[in-house]
Structures are given as structure tokens and as C-alpha cells.
Amino acid sequence: MGKPKKRTSPRKTGTRRSHIILDLARKVNGKSPVKVRTTRRETGKVA
Question: Which tens digit of pLDDT belongs to each residue from 1-47?
Fold first, then answer.
């Protein structure tokens, strides 16, 4: 998965949109046989 883009104005909470990417990834994991890595705790650490 690609990296989420930053918003233009600096120093605000939630400027990286990784939470949006996470929501999409969870939706994909619910439906598709190909699983997407979400968070370390959810998917288990990939060494």
C-alpha cells in the first residue's frame, strides 16, 4: 500500500492521513482473500 500524503499546513493533529488508509485496509481485509497489513498489533509483527 502507498504511503498517505500529508496535508499542506504543518503542526496539526491528524495531518498524516494514515487513519483513512487504516479504514480502507480493514474493509479490504473483511472481503478479499488477499490480506493487507494494518497495524502491528492487529496483524502480528512481520519480522
Answer: 666 666 666 666 666 677 778 888 888 888 989 888 888 888 877 66
Residue 30 lies in a domain: yes
Cα–Cα dist 21/4, whole Å:
7
Place of cell 480493514: 26
Instruction: Give CA–CA dist 34/37, Å, rounded.
Output: 10
Does the pTM exceed 0.85?
Answer: no
Residue pair 37/24 in contact by the 8 Å Cβ criterion: no
* 31 inside domain: yes
Residue 19 lies in a domain: yes
- Residue 7 DSSP SS3: coil
Total structural domains within the chain: 1
